[in-house]
What we know:
With 316 residues, the protein is α/β, with parallel strands linked by helices. The chain has helices at residues 64-76, 99-114, 118-121, 124-135, 141-146, 188-193, 201-219, 225-228, 235-238, 243-250, 286-294; strands spanning 8-17, 26-40, 45-51, 83-89, 149-155, 163-169, 176-180, 277-281.
Amino acid sequence: MAFxxxxxxxxxxxxxxxxxxxxxxxxVALALHDEVTxxxxxxxxxxxxxxxxxxxxxGDERHLVAATMLATFGRLGARPPGFELACVNRIPQARGxxxxxxxxxxxxxxxxxxxxxxxxxxGQAGVIRLAAEIEGHPDNVAPCVLGGFSIAWTAAxxxxxxxxxxxxxDSAAGVMPVVFVxxxxxxxxxxxxxxxxxxxxxxxxxxxxxxxxxVRALTGAPELLLAAxxxxxxxxxxxxxxxxxxxxxxxxxxxxxxGLPGWLVRPPATGGGRRAxxxxxxxxxxxxxxxxxxxxxxxxxxxxxxxxxxxxxxxx
Length: 316
Ligand SMILES: Nc1ncnc2c1ncn2[C@@H]1O[C@H](COP(=O)(O)OP(=O)(O)OP(=O)(O)O)[C@@H](O)[C@H]1O
Ligand SMILES: [Mg+2]
């Protein structure tokens, strides 16, 4: 089979998922991107990394983007003998910003671009389904592919259309994400291990109402964000593993930079009109503690250099 021989580049956004009550479902894309260029060449897989993960991530087919490309080539029934990847990574890894989803989505998009007709055989819905299968949950890969604010769900195996699905919604004017990036790493596998196998019915009912409300709050009624970001099925279980985050979220309004659990709603610092500023706070390390001590953040900056304070649009 003839593969595309010219280099292909994709830019994939950071994401924040498990938004408030929307465990494994609600997520947003952020304006901070990894860029990966793939070239079909030689008979080996080679990966160069600059930025986040440089010197740590593997340089061969074990690299997540490369491994995902190989899995995607397998689905498409066509694998080039070798390829090279050049990764420019800006998304902090293991900080709750969906770097693994971005890597997986990048791998799928690159592989399907290199195979003739690949994009026709693996459309947007197929990318989300395959990426969620590799990632294990759909809430980060959905906004990574669709952009903005998205709702993901999974149809059980054996059902028609089994696998992950997602829809994107337009967020209300003036709602903006603000991300606090922890200084310490926290791995998804560890965070998921802290969750119970089942939750009380009353807590499930509590979250059903809040998740529905969060959709309304983010798309048209930001004044509801405080109630809409309450959760009873995942945050408390994980709190002991991320005490700085828990303290920050639980702090009284006048001592927390958020003021509210999970999201910020505030009047504009400048300009007219009502504006809501929404912040996802999780896994905060010492850096976030400093922000907490310093009071309410005056700008929408994260604790690291990540300028993730804007929505990202969908991928082409
Ligand atoms: N750009 C990348 N290239 C290769 N591997 C990556 C890349 N980004 C993440 N990974 C792999 O994924 C791991 C981090 O995944 P993990 O799911 O724990 O955190 P995250 O995706 O950054 O945050 P979260 O899933 O909580 O939003 C890294 O340690 C690395 O093994
Ligand atoms: Mg991840």
